[in-house]
């Protein structure tokens, strides 16, 4: 396996990060990012990455937690929390974090296109990307 050098996106501060939507983010211990109070969409604006490998560590608190990592989304605003986040959902790609694979439109669980590791509704997860 080829080793890759990774650039940390968070190094002890939230400087250089912006948010769209309701809610907030905080940094615990300089390295654990937590969100609260809404579907806040968080994105990095100071450095662009044309092609990249993204390595993410995450933890969910409850079985019903559902989240994702948005990539390749347009620049977002921050003056209208009700709507600012919508371009990320409508024009970006979401790497899904949902171990139940809940397809809200079809009302079913276990959908590979909604499972952790899937590119939400575009490319199914080939295997569950979570670890216990």
Q: Main sheet, how many strands, which sense, barrel?
A: 2 strands, antiparallel
Class based on secondary structure composition and strand pairing: mainly beta
H and E string: EEEEEHE
What's the Cα radius of gyration?
Answer: 15 Å
Counting DSSP E segments of at least 2 residues, the number of strands comes to 6
Helical content stands at under 10%
Q: Count of helices? A: 1
What does this structure look like?
The protein is mainly beta and 132 residues long. The chain has one helix spanning 86-91; strands at 17-20, 24-28, 32-36, 41-44, 67-71, 93-97. The protein is globular.
Brief write-up:
5% of the residues lie in helices and 21% in strands.
